[in-house]
Q: What sequence folds into this?
């Protein structure tokens, strides 16, 4: 059985993990009533390789899971909350 770690609840941009890892999935909840956009990078800041970009329009409560199929990251994981106020969980191994 394969397991993974969780970032826990993310509400602001920041470093999730430093070093080699696998990005398993991204869970996003938007219940703010306004649009939001988040980005995830392979790196220690938002200048690394962009791995995912998720935008939600803010109409009603929105919950999504984005399966990243264990994408290999060589530098680490950095989360950026570009706009809005999303509730995000990043799972990695």
A:
């Amino acid at each position: 059985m394969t397991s993974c770690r969780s970032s826990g609840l993310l509400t602001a941009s920041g470093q999730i993990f430093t070093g080699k890892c696998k990005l398993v999935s991204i869970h996003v909840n938007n219940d703010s009533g306004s649009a939001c956009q988040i980005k995830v990078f392979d790196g220690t800041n938002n200048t690394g390789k962009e791995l995912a970009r998720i935008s939600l329009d803010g109409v009603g409560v929105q919950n999504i899971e984005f399966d990243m199929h264990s994408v290999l990251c060589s530098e680490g994981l950095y989360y950026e909350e570009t706009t809005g106020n999303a509730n995000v969980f990043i799972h990695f191994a």
About this structure: The chain is about 0% helix and 60% strand. The chain has a mean pLDDT of 95.
